Each structure stands twice: as structure tokens, then as C-alpha cells.
């Protein structure tokens, strides 16, 4: 490329470029939103003029901007400011204290919402909060707490606000837990369909438009703080196009986006999925847009009958007999119209049936170079991976097992978990793989937790799932989160490496990702994030370059008071008078748990692993069940 005078240079750093010719340099130069040169301090500083901004990296590590290939940013942004985050919180006591403090400041008729991204295994108590504890800290303000995609906990006020009574029938695929008198306890259970959880959450009040705009900007800033510069938005339930895209489109039009988004469209109408895509094909074309906001095709939901749910507390669901026809009608239309697509698929059995459909269509309507991939694929077999490879497909993996690996192990055994998903085998077979989170409801949006999982094979609770042969080296994991994700949106020629001609999207990390101890990976943040050559977040030694956003609104927002992703070193219980139960009939204050999950689950014993009809039988009888 033609070399021009740089607008910005970064020097005196440890820059991981992922460029094959110059994999590590100490300096780089930026102009017009792109990298124009990489190399030594001497070479790059020689390019500077009196107008060039020169930033001394002070020996810090720089990596390409992280790209989440499966994030629900558009939906998550609309709600971010009104959600209380338990992600990263270290104890039930602190989680309940946060709940109590937030309930006291949340005005009627708003709810306190804890919507995913956490696992009971992250808490030092190794348990979930009980319904009694939740009602004690918030007797009057409605509370809705989503745990993965398996259940939701509602206090009495939320049951009343949602209109759930003794006479409310169980929906298909879901269960309202009831006491001996038939009254709802506050537990909603996906058996295994999560629609009962989504539909109940949707009953809560929304933020007004101005706050949704503010909320989305602050969510993007939190992602920038964690080093995310791009994502592929996977749509979502109750996310209609184009109605629910007005906020992100306004931010794009106003030049206020700080995360690049390639968005997929997710069908909303069971039984009329094909009609959705036919309508959208007349409105928007794949890859239309620009570098900040572009269309990326269809999915992750293509047909409701083809969606298996990743609730490992429940048996694997069998897809309906009509799956092949429903999915085939949609995919044939997409391939005929050259629409890229992605498909949610947890289990190998679902993947196999979907591949039967794809291969049949390919016989007369060729896929050729059409970009398509499966999302999740925790139990995909080598046989089906070979079929994916042959048909030119890919896989996007997320760290869902980091949040529910314990449940998977209990149901399917430690041996099965060792290759769930078989990431190393995917890479060895040459399948394009992208990294991501599936945030915000099932897993955390923190990319460093995902990178920690890829490198160590451990859950957020510390359970080792994988042996070394299914763990990645740090640079390999980073490639999944950069170049691997860029391939999923057909943008590998402009993002994913810090090479001349590529977008100037980069992250200066708080500590050195390449050398910090494994456990420290999940605590990493950014101290300087650039998108398109512009600084969108800066902290610590680089704070003078930061450009703060407008204040968080509304003023009662949990984000305003607690921030986003939490730290286990923050102890809110010291600042609240939380009415938190400290004992239970079985184990007192839970001293019966020794904190070593492998022993608790019976995994370090030579005896046959026990199986439980009641998944809570392995722990206390005082869990929130």
C-alpha cells in the first residue's frame, strides 16, 4: 500500500500482530483508520511529522482488537443500563447485597433484573441464592434472576407483576415450580425450552428510547474496556427487524458506534420462518452497510423446529419430525438468494440432521463459496466435522461450557466433556473456527474469560474439563478471537491482524496476555482501545486520551452504581445490611462443601460416577430449587 504520513504512532511496545511476515514488532503507524506500517521504534518514529500523535506504550502488550463472533449486543444494549450484573462476583453474600442495594433504589414499576452471565460455581459458597434469601432482601421490588438458560428465580413481587398465579398453566416446554398447595414458588424451569424464561422477562418495563440509546453506548464502552472492537450480532428472541434496530441504526448514523457490528437476522415467527426471510430479503442485502454496521445474513435461528437447547440439566431434546422440511425450506431460499447463514446447534444429533438437509440442497443448488457455519457445536462428532468441512462450512465456539461444564459432566461424564467442543480437532481438520461468548444471557460478555477457558480448559468454578490436547496455546486462542471471527463475517481482509492495510483496531492490555499466569488471564482489561484508529477507551497511564460518555441514565441504573463486569475482590456485603440467610438445615453455613468441585462431583474417585435424578442432590437441600 502507498505510505502516507501517520496520524498516530504507537511505540515502545510488545505488539502481537498475528501477521505472518512480522508476528511481533515494537511500533506501528496509523492513518485514515488503517495500519500503514509496522516495525521497530526507529523505523516507525522516522515516519512521524510534527502533526503525528506519538503514544509511548511503556512496554505494554498490544493485540488486535477482539472480535466476538457470537454476541447479542443489539438486544443487550437496549437493556444494559437496567440490568444488575453478577458476572465476576465472588460470593452469594455479595450478590445478595448488590440485590438489596439495587432494590432499594429501583423505582416502581421497574424490576431488578440479573440477566445471565453468571454461574453458581463462581461463588465461594458453591451454591445459588435461595428464593427465601431473594425475598428477604427485596420483599417489595420485583426481582427477576436468570440462571443460564435453565431457570429463572422470581421473588413474590415479580410473580405478582408477571401475573403468575396458582391458576397459571405450565407452558409447553416449561414448568412453573409449585409448593404443596399448588402456589408458584418463584422458580421457572426450562424443560428444556427457554421460552418460559424469555417471555416472562419480556413482561418487565422497558427503558424509554433516550435511555436505550444511552444504555447501548455504555454497553459498547464496557466492551471496549474489555478489549472488544468488533462483534457479529446473532439476533435473538423478541428482537424484531427493523423495529428493534432503530437505536443501533441511530447510533451508527450519528457516528457514535465504538464496536463494529455485523448483524444476522433471527426469525421471530414460529411456523412462518420462511416468510420472515422472504420479507427481509426485500429490505436488506447481505454485506450491505459499512465497516461499522453491516448485514451478515440469516440466523442463528432459522427454524424453530431445528433449535436444540443447551440446558445440560435436562436430557438432550429430540428435534421435531418436521425439522427437515422447515429447515430445508428456509436454507434453500437462503442459498438460492446467496444469503450467508448460521445455525444454532448444540448436539451432534441435531448437526447430523441439519447436514442431511444441507447436503440434499447442495446437490441441485450449490453452496459453493457461500459463508455458513454452526454455532456452539459442543458435541459435534469427527464424522460430522468432516461433512462440515466438505461443504465449506465453519463453526463458532463459545465458552458456554465454562458456565455449565459441571452440569455437562454430571449428565454425560468427564470423558465426554473432554472433547466438548472438540476445538483442537476442528483446527486440525482445517475448519474455520471463530471465538465468542454467546452473551449476554447464558455466558458473560467478558472475552478474557473465554480466552482463559480456551487456554486452560477450566470452568469459572475451577473444574478442569479438558486435557492439554484440547486446550489452545495463547496465540491460537487469540487467532480464534480475531482472524477466526473476522472470517465469519467475510471481513478477514480488513480485520483480525495488525498488518499494513488492515483496520487500526487494537487493544493495549493491562497485563501481558502472553506471559501472565493462567489464572490472571480472566482479570485482564484494556488500558487503551482503538477502533478505526480512534481511541474509544483509555485508562491508567493512558487516561489523558480518554473521551468519557454522557452520564449513565436513568440515575437509578445498576450500572451507574456498580458498573459492568465485577471483580471477586469487591465486597458489597460490607456496605449493606443484607438479610442473608447464613445457615441451612443440611450443612449449617455450607461448611459441608470443601470447595473442590471435582470431589463434590465425585470426579477424582475411582468409583463409578453417581447419577442424579435431582441435579441438586449432589449438594445442599437448601438450594433455590
TrEMBL record:
Pfam families named among the record's database cross-references: Amidohydro_3
Highest taxon above the source species: Bacteria
InterPro entries listed in its UniProt record: Amidohydro_3, Metal-dep_hydrolase_composite, Metal_Hydrolase, YtcJ-like
Keywords in alphabetical order: Hydrolase
Domain Amidohydrolase: 54-537
A GO term for molecular function: hydrolase activity, acting on carbon-nitrogen (but not peptide) bonds
CDD domains: YtcJ_like
Protein name in UniProt: Amidohydrolase
Originating organism: Methylovulum psychrotolerans
Amino acid at each position: 500500500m502507498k505510505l502516507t504520513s501517520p496520524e498516530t504512532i504507537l511505540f515502545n511496545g510488545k505488539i502481537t500482530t498475528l501477521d505472518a511476515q512480522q508476528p511481533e514488532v515494537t511500533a506501528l503507524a496509523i492513518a485514515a483508520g488503517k495500519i500503514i506500517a509496522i516495525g521497530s521504534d526507529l523505523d516507525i518514529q522516522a515516519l512521524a511529522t510534527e502533526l503525528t500523535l506519538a503514544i509511548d506504550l511503556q512496554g505494554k502488550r498490544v493485540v488486535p482488537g477482539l472480535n466476538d463472533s457470537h454476541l447479542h449486543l443489539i438486544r443487550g444494549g437496549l437493556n444494559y443500563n437496567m440490568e444488575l450484573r453478577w458476572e465476576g462476583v465472588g460470593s452469594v453474600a455479595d450478590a445478595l447485597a448488590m440485590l438489596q442495594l439495587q432494590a432499594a433504589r429501583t423505582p416502581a414499576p421497574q424490576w431488578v433484573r440479573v440477566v445471565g452471565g453468571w454461574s453458581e460455581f463462581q461463588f465461594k459458597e458453591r451454591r445459588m441464592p435461595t428464593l427465601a434469601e431473594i425475598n428477604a432482601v427485596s420483599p417489595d421490588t420485583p426481582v427477576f434472576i436468570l440462571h443460564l438458560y435453565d431457570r429463572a428465580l422470581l421473588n413474590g413481587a415479580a410473580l405478582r407483576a408477571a401475573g403468575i398465579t396458582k391458576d397459571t398453566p405450565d407452558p409447553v416446554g416449561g414448568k412453573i415450580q409449585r409448593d404443596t398447595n399448588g402456589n408458584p414458588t418463584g422458580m421457572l424451569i426450562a424443560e428444556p425450552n427457554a421460552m418460559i424464561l424469555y417471555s416472562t422477562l419480556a413482561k418487565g418495563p422497558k427503558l424509554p428510547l433516550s435511555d436505550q440509546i444511552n444504555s447501548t453506548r455504555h454497553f459498547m464502552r464496557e466492551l471496549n474496556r474489555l478489549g472488544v472492537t468488533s462483534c457479529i450480532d446473532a439476533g435473538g428472541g423478541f428482537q424484531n427487524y427493523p423495529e428493534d434496530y432503530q437505536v443501533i441504526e441511530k447510533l451508527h448514523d450519528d457516528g457514535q458506534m465504538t464496536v463494529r457490528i455485523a448483524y444476522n437476522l433471527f426469525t421471530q415467527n414460529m411456523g412462518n420462518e420462511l416468510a420472515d426471510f422472504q420479507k427481509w430479503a426485500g429490505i436488506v442485502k447481505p454485506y450491505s452497510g459499512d465497516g461499522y454496521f453491516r448485514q451478515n445474513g440469516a440466523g442463528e435461528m432459522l427454524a424453530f423446529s431445528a433449535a436444540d437447547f443447551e440446558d445440560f440439566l435436562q436430557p438432550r431434546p429430540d428435534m421435531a419430525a418436521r425439522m427437515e422440511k422447515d429447515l430445508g425450506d428456509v436454507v434453500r431460499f437462503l442459498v438460492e438468494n446467496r444469503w450467508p447463514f448460521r445455525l444454532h446447534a448444540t448436539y451432534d444429533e441435531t448437526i447430523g440432521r441439519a447436514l442431511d438437509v444441507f447436503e440434499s440442497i447442495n446437490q441441485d443448488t450449490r453452496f459453493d463459496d457461500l459463508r455458513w457455519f454452526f454455532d456452539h457445536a459442543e458435541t459435534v462428532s469427527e464424522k460430522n466435522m468432516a461433512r462440515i468441512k466438505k461443504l465449506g462450512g465453519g463453526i463458532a465456539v463459545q465458552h458456554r461450557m465454562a458456565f455449565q461444564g459441571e452440569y455437562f459432566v454430571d449428565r454425560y461424564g468427564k470423558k465426554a466433556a473432554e472433547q466438548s467442543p472438540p476445538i483442537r480437532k476442528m483446527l486440525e481438520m482445517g475448519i474455520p473456527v471463530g471465538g465468542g461468548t454467546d452473551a449476554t444471557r447464558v455466558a458473560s460478555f467478558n472475552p478474557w474469560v473465554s480466552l482463559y477457558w480456551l487456554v486452560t480448559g477450566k470452568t469459572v468454578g475451577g473444574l478442569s474439563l479438558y486435557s492439554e490436547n484440547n486446550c489452545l496455546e495463547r496465540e491460537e486462542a487469540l487467532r480464534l478471537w480475531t482472524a477466526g471471527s473476522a472470517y465469519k463475517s467475510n471481513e478477514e481482509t480488513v480485520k483480525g491482524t495488525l498488518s499494513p492495510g488492515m483496520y487500526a483496531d487494537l487493544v493495549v492490555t493491562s497485563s501481558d496476555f502472553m506471559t501472565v499466569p493462567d489464572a490472571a488471564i480472566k482479570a485482564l482489561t484494556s488500558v487503551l482501545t482503538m477502533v478505526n484508529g480512534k481511541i474509544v477507551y483509555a485508562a491508567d497511564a493512558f487516561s489523558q486520551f480518554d473521551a468519557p460518555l454522557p452520564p449513565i441514565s436513568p440515575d437509578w441504573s445498576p450500572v451507574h452504581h456498580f458498573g459492568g463486569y465485577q471483580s471477586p475482590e469487591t465486597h458489597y456485603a460490607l456496605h449493606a445490611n443484607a438479610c442473608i440467610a447464613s445457615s441451612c438445615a443440611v450443612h449449617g453455613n455450607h461448611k459441608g462443601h470443601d470447595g473442590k468441585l471435582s470431589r463434590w462431583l465425585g470426579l477424582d474417585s475411582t468409583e463409578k460416577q453417581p447419577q442424579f435424578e435431582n441435579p441438586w442432590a449432589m449438594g445442599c437441600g437448601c438450594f433455590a430449587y
